[in-house]
Amino acid sequence: MPARPRRPALAALVVAALVVVLSGCAEAVDNQEHPNPPSTTPGSFDAPGTPPAAPGFEVGELPGQVTAPGTGAEAAPVRLVIPAIGLETRLVRLGLEPDGGMAVPEDFGRAGWFAGGPAPGEAGPAVIAGHVDSRTGPAVFYRLRELRPGQAVLVERADGTRLRFVVEQARSYPKAGFPTAAVFGPVSSAALRLITCTGDFDRARGSYRDNLVVFARLAVGAANRG
Amino acid sequence: MRRSRIAVLAAAIAAVAVLAVPAAAAVATAEAGPGQAMVRVAHFSPDASYVDVYMVSLNRKQLFPNVFYKSVSSYWAVAAGPFTYEVRAAGAAPESQPVIQVKGNLAAGSSYTVAAVGRRDQLQGLLLRDDMAPTSPGKAKVRFLDAAFDLPAVDIAVAGGPVLASRLAYPDPTRYRQVDSGRQRVEVRRAGAGAVLVKGTVAVKPGTVTSVVLLGGAGEPRELYAFSDAAGSRAAPAGGIRTGAGGTAPSSRAQPAPVLSLSAVLVVVVALAADARRRARA
């Protein structure tokens, strides 16, 4: 009970302080960025204008202009480095098997790039696959399951450039219902998918039941020599 | 008293934090997450050279000042749901009447282009749904948009080849259609086998999705302007990926425990028997 009468006073003080702080800041912002009163500006189609004061709006430039389609191909990827899981591997080229399935690396110690799709850095979903294990033990993508959103995936290319991708998410899918369109279908910018096996091992078929797909996107300004 | 001072300080910090929201540009994204749609901005009005574009979705209020003719942005993700696109002349007050206002509903997982077209005193806004479904193996997908407000309806055809769009009129888009990949000479003709109005080249790789807009008028050159919507694989593989031989898989889920316990029992039995024999001898 004794604390009760003090509360309105405290609330009033906080509100008053907040009003002072807010109005002070608002004035400061207005004075700095908008020397002319913006509310009466009619605007012009013929010349760039001062960005109007639009409270509550994020103001910025449009994200990167797209390049014309059909422009030159990117260099082929030759090496994959994932520092977070201590992975470094040369990349082989992968195509399709006669049954329409994707070929996989013969060497359990190497990952491969699916050359039937975009190269890493090109618009679209570049796909790199590697085995989770051989018959006797862990293979190149054994630790892929440890990757978390935000971690870096580096791809070195034949022309000496290196691209940096950032992991967005990792998901498991039953092979019986593999989401081909989501993994190999069109996307609007440069993306990367790392694929291996996961889930239960079906001894009768000699294969895992599920695929693990790690989705990554190209980090902005990610190409450099080295 | 001390608590109130802390409260004031906290309020001040909160207020500054609110006001100090950075002028964050949209970050381009490759694909939409759950509950998200992808949007991008295009500006195809030749004589409204600079405009301010306002994009209001459920989770973001974004202003892009000074967007200029022939700009096509990359896509970024916003929350699916109600959406408003407004355009004002560059620098115009946000309270002023927009020259374009389009309201729509963005479906989760879909991609959209919002475009400004038309003469500056008759601007129109388009909310176009972009089809990101995979192409047939080896093919590409193309759609056309007629932004030439000063031309009559047109046919668009491969030179000496098939018609790709017939009786297309401002400000309509065509549906996407599958075409052979490669570089093709394309003609824009007055609808109904009339005179050739524009010639251009459209180059598409297999697996890609492309939009081509017929531009110009009001002093700007007439042209076919192609821009990429998305790119996929030339030919996607069938089914899952066979990337494991089982060397690290548990031997099997049901069998290992009984097998182990059976051998353990055998070991114990043999040991007990040997022990009993030793005792019997002793």
How does this model look, in words?
The complex is a heterodimer of chains A (226) and B (282). Chain A is of the alpha+beta class and 226 residues long. Chain A has a domain at 77-225: Sortase (Sortase, Chain: A). Chain A has helices spanning 6-33, 180-184; strands at residues 58-59, 77-82, 87-94, 111-114, 124-129, 152-157, 161-174, 190-202, 207-218, 224-225. In chain A, β8 (190-202) and β9 form a beta hairpin. Chain A is elongated, with a radius of gyration of 27 Å. Chain A starts with 5 loop residues before the first helix and ends with a strand. Mean pLDDT of chain A is 83; it is low at 1-6 and 13-35. With 282 residues, chain B is of the alpha+beta class. Chain B has two domains: 24-130, Immunoglobulin-like (Sandwich), CATH 2.60.40; 131-235, Immunoglobulin-like (Sandwich), CATH 2.60.40. Helix content of chain B is 16%, strand content 43%. The longest helix of chain B is centred in the C-terminal third of the chain and has 26 residues, at 256-281. Chains A and B meet through α1, β1, β5, β7 and α2 of A and α1, β1, β2, β3 and β15 of B. β1 (58-59) of chain A pairs parallel with β3 of chain B, so a sheet runs across the interface.
Main β-sheet description of chain A: 8 strands, mixed, barrel
Count of runs of 4 or more consecutive helical residues of chain A: 2
Strand content of chain A: 25-35%
Q: What's the mean pLDDT score of chain B?
A: 86
Tell me the major beta sheet of chain B: 4 strands, mixed
